[in-house]
Amino acid sequence: MNMIEASGLGKRYGSTWALRECTLAIPAGHVTALVGPNGAGKTTLLNLAVGLAEPSAGQVSVLGGRPAGSPAALDGIAFVAQDMPVYKNLSAADLLHLTRNLNRRFDRPYAEARLADLGIPLKRKAGRLSGGQQAQLALTLALARRPRLLVLDEPVAMLDPVARHDFMALVLTAMVDDGVSVVLSSHVLAELERVADYLVLLSHGRVQMTGEVEDLLATHRMLTGPAAEADRYTERPVVHAGRAEAQAHLLVRAGVDDPVPPGWEAHPVSLEELALAYLREPGAGARPGPARGRHAQPTGVTK
Amino acid sequence: MTALTVLGRPDQDARLRPVPWRRMAWVTWRQHRFALGGMAALLGGLALYLLLAGLHLHQAYAAATACRPVSSDVCAMMLSNINGPAAEIIAVLLQAVPAMIGAFVGGPVLARELETGTFRYAWTQGFGRWRWTLGKLVLLAITVTAAAGAFSVLFSWYYQPYLADGWQIPFGPLVFGLRGVAFAAWTLAAFAIAALAGMLIRRAVPAIAATLAVYTGLALAVDLNLRQHYITPLVTHSTNLPGSVWIIGHWYTKDGRLVSQSAISQELRGYHGASATRVGPNTVRTVVDPIQYLTQHGYMNWTSYQPASRFWPFQWIEGGWLLALSVLAIAATVWLVRRRAA
Amino acid sequence: MTIDKGNGAPIEFRLDAASGVPTYLQLVHQVEHALRLGYLKPGDQLPKVRDVVASLAINPNTVLKAYKELEVKGLAAGRPGQGTFVQATLSQVALPELTVLRRSLSGWLATADGAGLDENGIIALFTSALRDFYERRRESSTRGPASDGASDGAEGAA
Q1: Mean pLDDT, 10 residues at a time, over chain A (303 residues)?
Q2: Verdict on whether the full-model pTM lies above 0.90
Q3: C79 forms bridges with which residues in the sheet?
Q4: Could you say which DSSP state residue B298 is in?
Q5: ipTM beyond cut 0.95
Q6: Which of A172, B262, B275, B305 is most exposed, with the fewest beta carbons within 10 Å of its own?
């Protein structure tokens, strides 16, 4: 089942297209990272998926074909927006009661147990909690709804490292306990590899690349060799070339079993390197790779 | 690669019963109890004053009407003592109440959510955003309208002696909007306008300000111009109208044609000249009414007015179109929430 | 100093984010290392997926992948509803063999040093050859004996 499916999705604000021709299918049971620089359209895409915005073009469905924003969709998706909005003048207990009233399903014992574990007092106004605690509170409220999909918009951008770790630990254990799928957006690449197993790369309002992280890493290599020969390399599509006087690094679409030219070294790529390389080459994702060999090609546009 | 199996949950989605409407009661109360408390304090304080002043007023009036002999100077003085400036002052102050209640209760409902970003939480809950909006607005509308209605009943009771002794008329511009159904209707309208303003402007303080401005403009337009046209006014020659009527217009015609005000003034100069005779020991001055004077000179006197008996029809008309306006404004707000959101 | 109360498993995983080694492989290696050193014995339970996720904040699928890899290697087996348990030990290399290996390594080091390689050069050369060795070995194990056509051109002076 696909958690989020978009086809030709676009959103325009005034005369600017924040998102265009977005087609993707995010599978269930994964942690999907929506990656891209600021202004790439991540928040727009998430807003469309959770029903906070209406598409200007195309369509988007969630949880296996339900229209985004429909009661069935709202029921199964919990959204934590950027900077974790909660009512600052309400206490945690009030917020629990509020969330309970606004949903069909709410696991209050779970929420109270989680808040107790985290040391968040129930009677204090949310505005007086620390940033990390507010984030945990917002997340607890979302998880207590027992959603099938958890959508997080830049969840850890404003958290310190400890808070960040605790936050993600809560999200990921919910995955284990309840089978929640997670879609989170981030413009920080560094810690994604530990957490994400599906990637959607957005740049300038367009989807550059989507795919399972494992597949993407298996189908890209970093070749290091003499700069003079770099231009002559044609065996595999080059995504990005980094050049110095004597040495060049080529990020190519190739698998482990692809032959390495003599004099060159091949290394596996990290997710961060891969994402950065594609982001630096706006045209890269769209070019279909030649279907040589048995290995899967990363899909710029999912079928 | 093995992905975690998504745990199967009993699929109730095919026939999702929506979250029951009554849940909004607690939500609305908890989120708006500050504004509602302010309204209660305002109305409560004013009600207390009206109660105390009203009891005093009613006692004085009862004493004045029980005074005998009726035409004596003492009794007349008792009656005129009741008609102090307090009534006017309170009526002026109360003009602002519907606007204040409506703006401060209605303005923040949507504006604060949009301003602080909490709509991203509230509108992604299972309840659904247009139902959330409708539920809140209807509950709050009913509350403010009921409170205002109760208050205006108290005000009518307080004001009763002024109407009974003819010192004030039911159609008095300050007082019409405070009695009957008008007070409640104006409060409802202010609330509905504020809610719509909040959705359009997306910021609480500017929405409140805009509501007060729009409300003031509307109230002035109705008081000064629109209200008199609800039912075509009656027209008469008579100069003997009961004291409780609402005089709308007064003009003269001669030979079937309307005479301008300046021509009348000119004509009246003759009247003043005629009556400015030197008063000597032997002259008898006949007092002639200016209107009688004009009539004697061939001018027809016309008065348009609304009789006091039309008070309640007018109340229903005003209440009716304010209600319609409010329903429209709330519907527009809900429609906007449904369509536009982020 | 606080000591974390154990969760029942004999070992606990840690993560080296800067090492460049894929996360699941780090877990696999830690299990193998623990087996070699005797921290883990056959029958011991590996940390529960949930506990690993909670302490390291990594994707649960990664832990599952690591445990699957251990199953493939025959080192562990999952018992439904109970967890993953150690099944076998790693073949220990006998002490005399270790001594022989060490002596030949010292000889190689002397040659490399004589050729002009400094410490970092030796490390780079060794790491690159080591990586290629295991990559080739993994390919040949997944594809069968008819493969192994990868060229030897992977070593170059660092």
Answers
A1: 91 91 93 90 93 92 90 93 88 94 93 92 91 91 95 87 89 92 87 89 90 90 86 82 86 83 84 88 57 35 35
A2: no
A3: C83
A4: T
A5: no
A6: B262
